């Protein structure tokens, strides 16, 4: 973060900006050492059959540090042949792995969980470098949850008879898993842990902008002594993913990503016997009533939309605020947004890191511009952004109507659209007015209103007086076009069992 | 036998009608098609339901979701049990229709009707248990109350079974009852070649406290009705039990691909539908297929 450039002043309301520079709460930089990420090789192949192997093709992709735009490593663009090899390795391993007593499979998962804990600093730093998210989040949220998922599903491996799917539920076979770039290791854990616990073998394709921690996870599988071929990792972009999900010898496809890609995969699998689970987009409503504890609500709103730069499928990207407290809430929210620290992901004080890729930054920029063009009022706190890398200031739109693109489309960035309502019924109507149905938030002191609202919201996860909480024991997944199937909890086993 | 001697009594034929929104409309097409028994003998004319009929039925089903899903589980259970009671009263009629539809003997047909009655009762008992079996409290690592509850998906499009032992009534009940037990509403495309038990079931439902629109029964060309249901923006899930044509517009693969546009939940047909035995214990597969899991987080503290 050598040089900085001044960005344009926030437009809109004309509210006085809190001056941060030189204020009482200015922090000195607290950088984490990039060296803690361990050695990053200049080039990576795939992890197939327990070995790191070269791709059959010659095409390589580059992964960059989105905070600096520096190339971190080259990695292989997986070919159809690579996918064939990986699926064959997983198929070969399936017989023994599925026949292993659950209690023994559990031990491997427990080992993996422990090694992740041991190496969590290394993994957190590597994740921040490759993804651009703040070290505070990888260290305190991602990695603890990754380990927790392996611990949780390890305990299921020898208890599947008691999971409620009948006696002796069977694994499906080879699971093809395609995961996104917003939580690279966490999404890996959500997919790999239940698949292995239930006796499946996997071929996983990480996102093309964030392959490094998955490849590091392959090393952990080796340290854990996991039988060869049980976990295979093939890198590449959407072409590799399509080859994997279309492969005739996979029995299960699990995908987390955008709704258009999920739809394409559902089409691709039509008429096959492959089991499919999809975790897709969202446009969550975060609903604040006039009796809500406003300071807590403001924290929840900030956490809901600015956590992980808003690269969260369940992000609370639509703020529905009761008209009577709109002004008070927005003033407090703007004050709070003015204190968000945007910048170096490896600085432990950073709240909002880098946008994951130039492509994503362009998409966010385009949608935010559409918000202005369609007449919404844009506001962002004044803050300095690093000169290199991909950055977007935490942004707020007021005067948003339900027809605006920024109220309908998933932006997947730090952009919050504010709408208002008068009655609970209107809040429900507006909250449900979207093809998505992944999550929602309710802020009110009134318990009966929470339960009334929760009943009516068409969303898979409803956070009341909190937001963006995750836990391996808690099922997560969407209604409507946010996809089908659940990950986490007892419910998460169903996606990997023949039931 | 007749006291009066010579003249034989002429049977009163039945005009079969669709069952949509709790009413019995004739098809929008104003047309019918011939239904024959398994030996090719004419049985009746069935209404030739159209794509418009299917869309009307989806409207009716959507309108009924709020009321039906909002009914207490206890009440839904009693309504389903009431269906069994009404079906019991018409046992002989259905036995005759099933015998004609499936080409089985009278005794076998009666047994299939009995099984269909029992199946309603089985699902009647599920309505107030499924939330306990499929939901529950999640012990998250933090001061939160965290509860998962199953909720109905919404409107389910159903292609009634067209093959397998007991398909015409028992199979039909086996796909309708689990969907509505949990609070969904359904639009059913009856088996094209054997729709009469389905159309008669509408008469049972109409007299058994099932609110209008919860179950909608259509007869007609599967090639018209199935793609309409599969592509409809306001249908949330699709049961392809009867999508057994190898190709064409009624084929499972094409319908599933069409359903992908709206990411409908899809239950695929059995690998070998003709070998399906609808008398076998149904399990909870269909019951759980048309549910969403909602998880609510709430902080705990003082």
UniProtKB/TrEMBL annotation, chain A:
Protein name according to UniProt: Aldehyde dehydrogenase (Acceptor)
Domain named Aldehyde dehydrogenase: residues: 52-498
Organism from which the protein derives: Kitasatospora cineracea
Region (Disordered): 1-22
Transmembrane segments: none
Cross-referenced PROSITE patterns: ALDEHYDE_DEHYDR_GLU
Pfam families, sorted: Aldedh (PF00171)
Taxonomic superkingdom: Bacteria
Species classification: Bacteria, Bacillati, Actinomycetota, Actinomycetes, Kitasatosporales
Keywords: Oxidoreductase
Active-site residues, Swiss-Prot/TrEMBL: 279
GO molecular function ontology, one term from the record: oxidoreductase activity, acting on the aldehyde or oxo group of donors, NAD or NADP as acceptor
InterPro entries assigned to the protein according to its UniProt record, in alphabetical order: Ald_DH/histidinol_DH, Ald_DH_C, Ald_DH_CS_GLU, Ald_DH_N, Aldehyde_DH_dom
Family from the record: Belongs to the aldehyde dehydrogenase family.
Automatic annotation (TrEMBL), chain B:
Domain Aldehyde dehydrogenase residues, every copy: 28-243
One Pfam family here: Aldedh
Keywords (A to Z) from UniProt: Oxidoreductase
Entry superkingdom: Bacteria
Gene3D superfamilies referenced in this protein's UniProt entry, alphabetically: Aldehyde Dehydrogenase, Chain A, domain 1
Protein name: Aldehyde dehydrogenase family protein
This protein's record includes keyword Oxidoreductase: yes
One Gene Ontology MF term: oxidoreductase activity
Keyword field contains Oxidoreductase: yes
Signal peptide: none
């Amino acid at each position: 973060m050598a040089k900085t450039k001044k960005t344009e002043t926030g437009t809109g309301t004309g509210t006085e900006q809190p001056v941060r520079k030189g204020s009482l709460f200015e922090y000195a930089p607290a950088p984490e050492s990039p060296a803690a990420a361990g050695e990053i090789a200049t080039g990576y192949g795939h992890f197939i059959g327990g070995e790191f192997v070269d791709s059959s093709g010659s095409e390589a992709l580059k992964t960059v540090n989105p905070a600096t735009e520096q190339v971190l490593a080259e990695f292989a663009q997986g070919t159809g042949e690579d996918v064939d090899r990986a699926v064959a390795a997983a198929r070969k391993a399936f017989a023994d792995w599925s026949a292993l007593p659950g209690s023994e499979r559990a031990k491997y998962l427990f080992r993996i969980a422990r090694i992740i804990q041991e190496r969590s600093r290394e993994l957190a730093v590597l994740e921040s470098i490759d993804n651009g998210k703040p070290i505070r989040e990888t260290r305190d949220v991602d990695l603890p949850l990754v380990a927790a998922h392996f611990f949780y599903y390890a305990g299921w491996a020898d208890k599947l008879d008691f999971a409620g799917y009948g006696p002796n539920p069977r694994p499906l076979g080879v699971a093809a898993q395609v995961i996104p770039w917003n939580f690279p290791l966490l999404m890996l854990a959500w997919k790999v842990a239940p698949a292995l616990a239930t006796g499946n073998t996997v071929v996983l394709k990480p996102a093309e902008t964030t392959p490094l921690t998955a490849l590091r996870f392959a090393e952990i599988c080796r340290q854990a002594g996991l039988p060869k071929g049980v976990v295979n990792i093939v890198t590449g972009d959407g072409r590799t993913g399509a080859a994997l999900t279309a492969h005739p010898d996979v029995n299960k496809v699990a995908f987390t990503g955008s709704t258009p890609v999920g739809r394409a995969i559902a089409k691709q699998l039509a008429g096959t016997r492959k089991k499919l689970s999809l975790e897709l987009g969202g446009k969550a409503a975060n609903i604040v009533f006039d009796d809500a504890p406003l300071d807590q609500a403001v924290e929840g709103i900030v956490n809901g939309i600015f956590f992980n730069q808003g690269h969260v499928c369940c992000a609370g990207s639509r703020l529905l605020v009761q008209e009577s407290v709109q002004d008070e809430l927005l003033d407090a929210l703007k004050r709070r947004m003015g204190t968000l620290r945007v910048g170096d992901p490896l600085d432990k004080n950073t709240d909002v890191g880098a946008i994951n890729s130039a492509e994503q930054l362009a998409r966010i920029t385009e949608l935010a511009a559409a918000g202005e063009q369609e007449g919404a009022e844009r506001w962002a706190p004044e803050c300095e952004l690093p000169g290199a890398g991909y950055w977007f200031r935490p942004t707020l739109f007021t005067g948003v109507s339900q027809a605006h693109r920024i109220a309908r489309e998933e932006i997947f960035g730090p952009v919050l659209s504010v709408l208002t309502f008068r009655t609970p019924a209107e809040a429900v109507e507006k909250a449900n007015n979207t093809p998505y149905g992944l999550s929602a938030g309710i802020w009110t002191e009134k318990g009966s209103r929470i339960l009334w609202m929760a009943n009516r919201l068409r969303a898979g996860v409803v956070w009341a007086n909190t937001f963006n909480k995750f836990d391996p024991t808690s099922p997560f997944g969407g209604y409507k076009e946010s996809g089908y199937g659940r990950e986490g909890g007892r419910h998460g086993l169903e996606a990997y069992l023949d039931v | 036998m007749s006291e009066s001697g010579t003249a034989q009594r002429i049977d009163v034929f039945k005009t079969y009608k669709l069952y949509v929104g709790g009413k019995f409309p004739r098809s929008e097409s104003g047309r019918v098609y011939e239904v024959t028994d398994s030996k090719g003998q004419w049985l009746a004319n069935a209404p030739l339901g159209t794509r418009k009929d299917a869309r009307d039925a989806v409207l009716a089903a959507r309108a009924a979701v709020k009321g039906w899903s909002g009914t207490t589980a206890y009440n839904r259970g009693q309504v389903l049990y009431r269906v069994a009671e009404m079906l019991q009263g018409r046992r002989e009629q259905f036995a005759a229709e099933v015998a004609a539809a499936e080409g089985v003997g009278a005794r076998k047909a009666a047994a299939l009707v009995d099984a269909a009655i029992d199946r309603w009762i089985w699902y009647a008992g599920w309505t107030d248990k499924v939330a306990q079996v499929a939901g529950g409290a999640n012990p998250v690592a933090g001061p939160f109350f965290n509860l998962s509850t199953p909720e109905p998906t919404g409107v389910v499009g159903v292609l009634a079974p067209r093959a397998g032992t007991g398909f015409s009534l028992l199979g039909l009940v086996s796909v309708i009852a689990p969907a509505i037990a949990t609070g969904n509403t359904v639009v059913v495309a009856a088996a094209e070649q054997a729709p009469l038990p389905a159309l008669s079931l509408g008469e049972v439902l109409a007299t058994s406290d099932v609110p209008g629109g919860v179950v909608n029964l259509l007869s007609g060309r599967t090639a018209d009705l199935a793609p309409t249901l599969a592509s409809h923006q306001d249908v949330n899930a699709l049961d392809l039990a009867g999508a057994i044509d190898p190709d064409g517009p009624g084929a499972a693969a094409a319908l599933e691909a069409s359903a992908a546009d709206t990411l409908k939940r899809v239950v695929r047909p059995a690998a070998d539908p003709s070998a399906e035995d609808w008398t076998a214990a149904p399990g909870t597969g269909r019951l759980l297929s048309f549910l969403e899991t909602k998880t609510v987080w709430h902080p705990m503290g003082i």
